[in-house]
Specification:
Blueprint lengths: L5 E5 H21 L6 E5 L1 H5 L3 H7 L5 E4 L2 H9 L6 E3 L8 H7 L3 E4 L2 H9 L6 E6 L14 H13 L3 E7 L12 H11 L6 E4 L1 H6 L12 E3 L25 E13 L4 E2 L5 E2 L4 E6 L16 E4 L2 E6 L7 E4 L11 E5 L6 H7 L4 H6 L7 E4 L1
Parallel strand pairs: 1-18, 2-3, 2-9, 3-4, 4-5, 5-6, 6-7, 7-8, 8-9
Antiparallel strand pairs: 1-10, 10-13, 10-17, 11-12, 13-16, 14-15, 14-17, 15-16
Helix pairs in contact: 1-3, 6-7
């Protein structure tokens, strides 16, 4: 019998979260007397650990999908996705363009070398691109000074029949914090406002808090690129996902596999960093950092055992962790445990207790953890 640990991915929760984001965008657009933007559902990193095929099904009503990996883009096509697919980092070698052409992919273009490769390529059909501006995050994108020439060259490739649509995009560094998007948006608008083409600037945080900047008009289509919020986690440190009506799409579950009775002064786990102040019962859970649970989670990290909230004790080891059973006197071997997700603590709560973010926990799910799909 396999270890009693599994992750459940809810396709219905994925669909619910997409519908919730769409409703928010529609309300924002209606208030501004505009049109809602189109949605690229971001499914990079194996759909944030949830699985490409599950994401294709759950996000079937998105206008497009966006990711980084060419292999994942091919999997989307093989899973039946016929809509737009955007490569968020673009392509890396001239040979990548064979797959871009064969699978009808759209691509981000963020440097001169990519424009050079496009100019030399021979396609069976035009390739749609999003030309990326570095508006201040200083990761990918043409500088504001270099962007006009890059756009002019892209438009020339369009005239020559190599490119199809040429859109404009950037990425916000502080949409989830007090600095917001004002400064970067001003840079983007000042550089691109006279250039034709679709616009894409909003990630999850900007989609939820600044959706008004993505309202479309008959003359200007906007695309938003929500990621983490579609999986039921929050992009904000100061707001829970449930406050936006989002549902967790991944639940990590296990069981109690042993119980120990501690005396006052007894310690648990490596390093003996937790010592009991009184007699107490603790449960050993079949989940550790080799399963993707954060090793740096500390005493007090929330866990739900048999439907009752309790806490992690001591240090997480490779295959096990230890929880306080005093709040659940009836719990013993075989008692169900929810590490995060539906009917348990949110992935954001666990991440905060571990000094990280929910993104990392979802993406860190180890291959040895069985994943089941829940419609």
């Amino acid at each position: 019998m396999p270890r009693p640990i599994s992750a459940t991915v809810s396709v219905s929760a994925l669909a619910h979260n997409l519908a919730t984001v769409r409703h928010h965008l529609e309300q924002t657009a209606a208030a501004a007397s505009g049109l809602p933007p189109s949605i690229w559902a971001v499914i990079k990193a194996n759909a944030y650990g949830h699985g490409i095929e599950q994401a294709v099904t759950g996000f079937s009503k998105a206008q497009g999908l966006a990711m980084l990996d060419l292999d994942e883009a091919v999997r989307c096509r093989e899973a039946g996705w016929g809509g737009p697919i955007l490569l968020l980092e673009g392509f890396f070698k001239p040979s990548d363009l064979d797959l871009v052409d064969r699978y009808h992919l759209s691509t981000t273009v963020h440097n001169r070398e990519q424009l050079d490769m496009l100019a030399r390529a021979r396609f069976t059909r035009r390739v749609d691109v999003m030309l990326k501006l570095n508006s201040g995050m200083n990761r990918l994108g043409f500088s504001p000074a270099a962007y006009p020439a890059a756009h002019e060259r892209a438009m020339l490739l369009q005239q020559q029949g190599t490119l199809g649509s040429v859109g404009k995009m950037t990425h916000f560094a502080c949409a989830d914090g007090p600095q917001g998007v004002t400064e970067q948006l001003a840079v983007f608008n000042s550089v691109t406002h006279k250039m034709p083409g679709a616009i894409s600037v909003c990630n999850s945080a900007a989609t939820l808090r600044f959706a008004d900047i993505a309202v479309s008009t008959p003359a200007q289509t906007h695309w938003v690129r929500p990621g983490i919020c579609l999986y039921g986690a929050s992009p904000f440190a100061d707001a829970e996902a449930t406050s936006f009506g989002l549902k967790p799409a991944m639940t990590l579950s296990s069981e109690i596999i042993a119980v120990q009775e501690l005396k006052a002064g007894d310690s648990v786990g490596y390093g003996a960093i937790f010592r009991a102040e009184r007699p107490m019962r603790v449960g050993i859970v079949a989940c550790g950092y080799a399963d993707g649970y954060p090793r740096h989670a500390t005493t007090g990290t929330p866990v739900v055992v048999a439907g009752i909230r309790t806490q992690l004790l001591g240090r997480v080891s490779m295959d096990m962790l230890i929880v306080d059973l005093d709040p659940i006197p009836a719990a013993g071997v075989g008692a169900p445990v929810v590490l995060f997700g539906e009917d348990g603590p949110s992935v954001d709560e666990v991440a905060m207790a571990a000094g990280t973010i929910g993104y990392e926990l979802l993406c860190a799910l180890a291959p040895r953890v069985p994943v089941t799909r829940d419609a």
